[in-house]
Specification:
about 350 residues; alpha/beta; Thrombin, subunit H; Rossmann fold; 3 domains; five-stranded parallel beta sheet; 11 helices
């Protein structure tokens, strides 16, 4: 069954849309007047429009609650929550509807990037630097974190590549110092490293690293990851206040380890698995709702959470915020992980005996 548009959110101009998005539009519930007969957990759409523009966007939402209004036409108030896949759709719409979007896109495609490469190993540093020089980019090199920070303050690079294990000031310290400065809050930072333990990767994501590139790296992998991070930073409308969002890749940090960390920190908010159209809502570290399929909002309990725990690929982003949801999981994270391990063992045994 296809979703129906239940209401319209209108903005007087493009700037107001940008401000709404950067102010966390997608992370909170919205209310619209609707004539549709809706109930809690129904799947619907909400339409975004900009005055004096033909462009519009329909975004998938889930109904949180419906309440009567004083509208003489009999319309009701519908409280809606945006679905997890809305972020890339709205980011693309914001850019596409910008009157200067075409000009800006051409400028970005042609501009010469400034790249900082920071590594105490000169061979590795020169190897990475040369790949960018060969593509016509401007490259700056440093041999440790403190020298790298000075380099970044002087040249303000578009992307920063850094080793983690360095003498004097290591990559962790460099990343802390970079993210503490507003000018580098959104600058893509990638770690070139041999570290592959989940705890190390999670530590980096907590500090604000954008991606990891394993040493020894291939040219194709390095360039693909750098280009992806730069592209993501160009379309990102995250406000500076949201830099505490935790982002990363499931290839580097498994979902059980990530959820255990969020439970330990008693975090509340939305854990989005961006490329998969899935999300998990947490209240004080406890999962209270999980959605595995973007078009089935009723699949929100423990079975959906177990299905998500099997995922090993895709990016994740945890955005802190208030969560006002009925607990659909009805189990502690510890119990869920124990049961998931049991199910995984049973499935492995069945495959082995088949």
């Amino acid at each position: 069954m296809s979703r129906k548009v239940c209401g319209v959110i209108r903005y007087p101009n493009h700037d107001e849309l940008v401000l709404a998005f950067s102010g966390g539009l997608l992370t909170r519930s919205v209310k619209v007047r609707t004539s549709l007969p809706l109930a809690a957990y129904d799947a619907a759409k909400v339409k975004l429009e900009i005055d004096n523009q033909e462009a519009s966007l329909e975004l998938p939402v889930t109904v949180v609650e419906v309440s009567p209004s004083d509208d003489p036409t009999g319309k009701s108030w519908a409280k809606l929550r945006f679905d997890s896949q809305c972020t890339p759709l709205l980011e693309a719409f914001v850019l596409r509807s910008d009157p200067s979007a075409d000009e800006t896109s051409q400028t970005r495609d042609k501009r010469r990037l400034k790249v900082a490469v920071i590594d105490d190993n000169k061979i590795q540093r020169d190897l990475a630097a040369q790949l960018f020089r060969d593509r016509g980019h401007e490259v700056f090199e440093a041999g440790d974190g403190l020298e790298g920070l000075a380099l970044c303050l002087k040249h303000e690079p578009d992307v920063i590549l850094s080793d983690v294990q360095m003498p004097k000031t290591d990559g962790w310290q460099l990343l802390r110092m970079l993210r503490a400065r507003k000018r580098f809050a959104r600058t893509p930072v990638l770690f070139l490293t041999t570290l592959n333990a989940e705890k190390d990767r999670l530590h980096g994501y907590r500090l604000g690293v954008d991606d990891y590139v394993e040493k020894p790296f291939s040219e194709a992998d390095l360039m693909a990851r750098v280009e992806r991070c730069i592209r993501r930073s160009m379309v990102s409308m995250r406000p500076l206040a949201a830099v505490d969002a935790l982002r990363g890749n499931l290839e580097h940090v498994g979902l059980p380890a990530l959820l255990s960390f969020l439970e330990l920190e008693q975090k509340s908010g939305t854990l989005r698995l961006e490329q998969l159209g899935c999300y998990i809502l947490l209240k004080a570290g406890r999962p209270v709702r999980a959605c595995m399929r973007e078009l089935d909002s009723r699949d929100a309990g423990v079975d959906a959470l177990h299905a998500l725990l099997d995922l090993t690929q895709g990016t994740f982003e945890f955005v802190p915020g208030e969560v006002d949801e009925i607990d659909s999981v009805k189990a502690s994270l510890g119990m869920v992980l124990i049961e998931h391990a049991r199910r995984s063992d049973e499935a492995a045994a069945k495959r082995a005996s088949a």
